[in-house]
UniProtKB/TrEMBL annotation:
GO terms for cellular component: membrane; stromule. This is ATP synthase delta chain, chloroplastic. The lineage of its organism: Eukaryota, Viridiplantae, Streptophyta, Embryophyta, Tracheophyta. GO terms for biological process: photosynthetic electron transport in photosystem I; photosynthetic electron transport in photosystem II; response to cold. Residues 21-41 are annotated as: Disordered. It is found in: Membrane. Keywords: ATP synthesis, Hydrogen ion transport, Ion transport, Membrane, Transport. Belongs to the ATPase delta chain family.
């Protein structure tokens, strides 16, 4: 029996790479669960399964076409693009015509310099009505990519943008802690930290190094037994 993952990969290989737009009726949509979105724990597992299938298929295609690194860079761009509320809502809105969504993908590809592979992949998600899981696909893609390349992902949050030399030092420290061959840094601006920075790494960011003033203030408040008293900064 062919698994969902294998079927998704085969369908993508046969439909993603012909030049031009993806076909309006894509066989991939028949291999991925569709219909009403389910809520609750079961619905979350369903979305994770779908996202994993798409992510592995994209990784396999990128490997086959020797574009794994550039595809990984595109996936990072997609994460930032779809984190914008208006863009995400546009693509998941069922009342907006598919052709308009395709046109928007063309604009995104041009403005963000995405590969044709990536643009066609987004069109497949549109055809299959699965743009709603694009953020999960990004996470799953990164997980597969990181394992494949022995790469540790570290998310560095700070109040202001850190200098490149500081990020390089952080990458070296994470490499020492994890033994990973490579370290990729993602930066996030978080004004709530007051000053300093935090580093999250490990599977799903399970490990934390907190060098923020916010953390220091919380520790001081705990030592002084201030409870819920708000500290003015």
């Amino acid at each position: 029996m062919v698994s969902l993952q294998q079927t998704a990969t085969l369908s993508l290989q046969s439909n993603l790479f012909p030049s031009g737009r993806a076909a309006s009726r894509n066989p991939l949509s028949a291999t991925i669960p569709s219909g009403p979105r389910r809520r609750g724990a079961h619905g979350i597992r369903m979305s994770a399964t779908v996202a994993t299938s798409y992510a592995i298929a994209l990784v396999d295609l990128a490997k086959a076409n020797n574009t794994l690194e550039s595809t990984s860079a595109d996936v990072e761009k997609i994460e930032k693009i779809f984190s914008e509320k208006q863009i995400h809502e546009f693509f998941v809105n069922p009342t907006i015509d598919i052709e308009k969504k395709r046109e928007m993908v063309d604009e995104i590809c041009k403005s963000s310099a995405l590969q044709p592979l990536t643009g066609n992949f987004l069109n497949i998600l549109i055809d299959a009505k699965r743009v709603d899981v694009v953020k999960d696909i990004v996470k799953e893609f990164e997980e597969v990519y990181n394992k494949m390349t022995n790469t540790e992902m570290a998310v560095v949050s700070s109040v202001v943008k850190l200098e490149s030399e500081h990020l390089a030092q952080i990458a070296k420290q994470v490499q020492k802690l994890t033994g990973a061959k490579n370290v990729r840094i993602k930066t996030v601006i978080d004004p709530s930290l007051v000053a300093g920075f935090t580093i999250r790494y490990g599977k799903w960011g399970s490990k934390l190094i907190d060098m923020s003033v916010k953390k220091q203030l919380e520790e001081i408040a705990a030592q002084l037994d201030l409870g819920d008293v708000q500290l003015a900064v």
